């Protein structure tokens, strides 16, 4: 029995707009972010998808994105599980800083390493590898079993927590995943085989809009 997993990165947040490191801080969606979530919902509706359960992080921007999607596809009240395992990568001491200011303080090269390396965390924060270390077990124990039982599961989360999942699903290497950007509000639909490998992947939107 093959199930379906849909991943959606939250819409633009106020701190995305201001070019700030966000991490576990909790800004709201912008008007553009709300529109992106609704565009993603329309794409899901056009694709004929309805869901059995949803997962999201404990952060407002992901929860709001999920709420907007469920409202627009007519599934308000869907069982939803919120867990900090799906939170954005923790940027530690960089959280709340403007990215240009961070480059002035630590240098372009160092900030680039923190943002784009696989396993070098910023001070007090997490690397992508660290983020994966909490996302992957949660996926294996909570999300994957439901998909393999034939359910259609929606996950609304963040750029880095979803990159950790995409790395596993798409069998990407360290270099590939560090250069991957996920567009905000664009659903990625995975149909899984019984052995948890990907039978089919469909992106319902323009991934070139990633930033």
UniProtKB/TrEMBL annotation:
Judged by the first EC level, this protein's enzyme class is isomerase
Q: What does this protein do?
A: Catalyzes the interconversion of 2-phosphoglycerate and 3-phosphoglycerate.
Name used for this protein in its record? 2,3-bisphosphoglycerate-dependent phosphoglycerate mutase
Q: Which residues span the membrane?
A: none
Q: Residues in the active site?
A: 10, 88
Pathway(s) where this gene product acts: Carbohydrate degradation; glycolysis; pyruvate from D-glyceraldehyde 3-phosphate: step 3/5
Q: Tell me the organism.
A: Pseudohoeflea coraliihabitans
Record InterPro entries: His_Pase_superF_clade-1, PG/BPGM_mutase_AS, Phosphogly_mut1
Q: Which CDD domains match?
A: HP_PGM_like
Q: Name one Pfam family in it.
A: His_Phos_1
Q: Which UniProt keywords apply?
A: Gluconeogenesis, Glycolysis, Isomerase
Its EC number is: 5.4.2.11
List the catalysed reactions: (2R)-2-phosphoglycerate = (2R)-3-phosphoglycerate
Q: Where is this site: Transition state stabilizer?
A: 158
User: In terms of domain of life, where is this protein from?
Assistant: Bacteria
Which residues are involved in binding substrate?
9-16, 22-23, 61, 88-91, 99, 115-116, 159-160
Its family remark reads: Belongs to the phosphoglycerate mutase family. BPG-dependent PGAM subfamily.
Return the PROSITE patterns for the record: PG_MUTASE
